[in-house]
Design goal:
The protein is built from five helices and 14 strands. It is α+β, with helices and mostly antiparallel strands.
Length: about 230
């Protein structure tokens, strides 16, 4: 997901005029204070029934083409507490829980200039191919990001989104997720049922699954057909 959730206020206020509002993620949010990021861990735990075997990682990505992952380091840092956070080669990490860091009002700190990297959550159930995404994983992933991002929203914006059920539960908003490569099409598959999903016109890697449609179970799978 890539628009900051504050930008979803437009979707919420225009929802009455459109049957479906496509919300595409063009920009990942910045890193947050540790206490705010932990709200994402709490949301993951609360939603585990939708993805009982899944793991939660966070992905770091350069904000501009000139930045790379080379030499990147991440730590949880406060006045009294410092906790190094190991980064995988792909820029992903597991955020640990630390009561001491919460008490110390610690921050997530990179050894790079501010605003040079963005993050997004990544929820994955083992065994799902890279060319597919499990719908329950996407539902939980959305809940994680919403739990974190809503903390920085103005009350009016947060209320406008809540009135529609929130970005993860609204029937008038379809949140965008990244595919590994530009898409020709994306299909939601469950048993013999197939549904072609919207793919963003301008960002062909972004697809929009029906997170709020409970007619589709958590084990439904989004399958990708890539542009060649």
């Amino acid at each position: 997901m890539k628009f900051p959730f504050a930008c979803l206020l437009f979707a919420a206020t225009t929802a009455l005029a459109q049957p479906v509002v496509e919300v595409s993620n063009v920009r990942d949010p910045e890193l947050k204070p540790y206490a705010t990021m932990v709200k994402g861990l709490d949301a993951f735990d609360a939603q585990r029934a939708r993805a009982p075997k899944a793991t939660l990682r966070f992905l770091l990505r350069p904000a501009t083409a000139g930045d790379t992952l080379d030499g990147l380091e991440l730590k949880i840092s406060g006045d009294m507490v410092t906790v190094p956070v190991p980064l995988a080669a792909d820029g992903s990490f597991v955020l640990p829980r630390s009561a001491a860091a919460l008490q110390d009002r610690a921050e997530l700190v990179l050894n790079k200039k501010r605003n040079s990297f963005r993050w997004r959550p990544d929820v994955r159930t083992p065994g799902v191919p890279k060319e597919a995404r499990r719908l329950g994983d996407l539902r939980v992933q959305c809940a994680v990001q919403w739990a974190i991002e809503q903390e920085d929203m103005a009350p009016a914006a947060r209320g406008a989104l809540a009135a529609t059920g929130g970005p993860c539960r609204s029937m008038v908003m379809h949140m965008g997720f990244d595919a590994p490569a530009p898409l020709r099409s994306a299909w939601l598959v469950e048993g013999e049922r197939r549904l072609q999903l919207p793919v963003n016109r301008h960002h062909r890697r972004v697809f929009n699954p029906p997170l709020a449609d409970r007619a589709w179970g958590d084990d439904a799978v989004v399958k990708f057909e890539y542009d060649k």
